[in-house]
Amino acid sequence: DRDHVVLEPMGSVRRGAASHERVAMLRFSGDGEWLGVQGAGKGLELFRVRDEDEAARKLKRRRRRRKEKAAKKATEKGGGKKAAAGAAAKEVAEKDSNDGDDEGQDGEEPGGEDDTLKASDELEAIQLVTSMGAKIKAFCFAPSGTKLPPGVACRLALSLSNNCIKVLNISSETNSYDTASCIDLGGHRSDVRALALSSDDMSLLTASSAALKMWNPRTGSCLATMESGYGLSILFAPGNKFAVLGTKEGSLEVFDLGAASRVHVEEGAHGGAVWSLTPLPNKAGFFSGAADKTVKLWHWSVVAGEGGAKSLRVSHVKTVSVADDVLSVRLSPDGKLLAVALLDATVKVYFSDSMKFFLSLYGHKLPVLCMDISSDSTLLLTGSSDKNIKVWGLDFGDCHKSLFAHGDAVMSVAWVPGTHYAFSAGKDRLLKYWDLDRFELLLELPGHLGELWCCGISQFGDFVVTGSHDRSIRRWERSSEPFFIEEERERRLESLFEADMENTAADKDAAAGATSDAAAAAAAAAVAGRRTLEAVSAADAIIDALEAAALELERLRTADRERAEAAEAGRPPPRPLPPNALLGTLAPSAYVLKIVSAVRASELEQAVMMLPFADALRLLGYLPQWLQGPGTAVELTVRLAALLVRLHQGQLAATAAARPVLLALQRRLRGAVQGLKDVVGFNLAAMSYLARRARENEGVTEADAVVPAKRQLLGNGLAAA
């Protein structure tokens, strides 16, 4: 047995200021010269690993210090030994001056063997890396062999919790560090809850729980990040230089986009979350709707700031109280009507100038979460938690159409400017494109990994921007590639059908898991596969072929019977049968073989599994006929015979009509398989003969060819072992 020690304890090393944090990661550099100790917080300690000579000198200094301490203690105990202590101290000083080594102040191990190397002799604390602005999640050293700049002892990369990667250079002279490079993705750290496009489509604002970000929607670059409250709605001010943000706390925050700063906070603007903002067509102000059951009108105002600089503010003008929480407000482009969606699942329409009630729209079963009014101010589009979108006429308040739009709540809807096309975004992670003149779905755009919260459309409708729970912002561009509505509809139906097939198979598997062990074993022995639309289509084609073949056989039998009766009665024979338009010149069995051969091999098993027993028995009856004559499909016949017998073994054993079919199949199947086996054997023998002749022509004996092959096989076997 093994008597050697794999790991030897060498003691511990006292950590620095980050010692109160637990250690999350330990990692050595590639050359073994550095050790990094990552704490659970913002600290990373770096230790240099001394080489053997340095560690030996450190051990030597530690021994001298121990002797010096012992001499000092002896001096303190008795005054008669002062001379000896002075001589020992003098000897130590001389040795220190001769060595010329730096005196490290590493801690010593209390007790234990002092004449052996300790961890404190091997490791030297160099640097504590902190103040990264966020917690350190992981780190790594530069690969060994990396060329470092002068004065740099080592280089390491840090992964921070704020989605940032920093590369640091550790100085070899001043025991300090500096940032060599930084990769900081400008994305949000939480859900993108609201977004807005500027009037010229050159800027995009997105809001999350703690930040408002400005983007270039064309290039995707983050232009600015501003601290904010929990944003739920955004609106650009006229001129696109300022913006206002409605927050979950009920305040309105004004931002100077040029300076990338928050210039004003209207505290107490609402008593609840500000869910929606909509601008006035004359650009004088905007309406806000909140959870405090009020709709307020605000006007823009300009004030002079420090140094004479002008800044934007908002001033309250009017308040309208409603019966329930306001979830969305929209003003018609002509400025005449204001639509207000309430928590009671209704939409109230007011005259915007006098705020007099005009219409009440009922129909949604759950609250309306989003709305938009078309550019011609004639149609109102609403999206609700009941997964439906509805199109309303604003002249009489009638519902033109209700459409089941998403698999979950509809969170945002928007008309394409100047058209009656619209987009809807839902919690089912899909963005959908609609033609609301014909009330049909045009496109379904998957891509997000989480619920969609908001969407915005450019002024020309050439791109759409969406924000999601997955913290991403996606831009969807209109392409010149044409699409066909029928093809898109068929593709969606196929995906739904396949999903339904998968769910059905999963339910069957769950039911089989609750049955007895025998049933579970039978289910395990079943053919594995996934039921697809192609397999279902193939099963339908086989069933149709069997029906057509049965009708043709019945037609042929009827003609033969009529011909026999005419011969017995002495009548002239009837006219020959016209050829079958479907089968052509093929016999019924040949037609079935043609249809079955056209099924892809990957779909054949699933297609046969979906056949009813009656059709499976009819198909089994054609198999002996396929084995007659030259050019028979032996492999296909054997595969189908084995599959059908395995699937319907119990029913075949209990069906008397199946016995002659199985006996005929057994007689012909054995001979056909043996003939195929003979052909394969003949071909193998011929290939072996040709290979032997080729070796003889090249002057290579059979032994010379066999020995390397055996060696290769032996080598493969040893490698596998």
From TrEMBL:
Q: At which residues are the WD repeats?
A: 267-298, 361-402, 403-444, 445-477
The UniProt keywords, alphabetically, are: Repeat, WD repeat
Compositional bias (Basic residues) spans? Answer: 58-70
Coiled coil ranges (UniProt) are none
Q: Which Gene3D superfamilies match?
A: YVTN repeat-like/Quinoprotein amine dehydrogenase (2.130.10.10)
InterPro entries with a match to the protein in the record: SSU_processome_Utp12, TBC1_cilium_biogenesis, WD40/YVTN_repeat-like_dom_sf, WD40_repeat_dom_sf, WD40_rpt
What domain of life is recorded for the organism? Eukaryota
Query: What's the name of the protein?
Result: Small-subunit processome Utp12 domain-containing protein
Q: Which organism is it from?
A: Volvox africanus
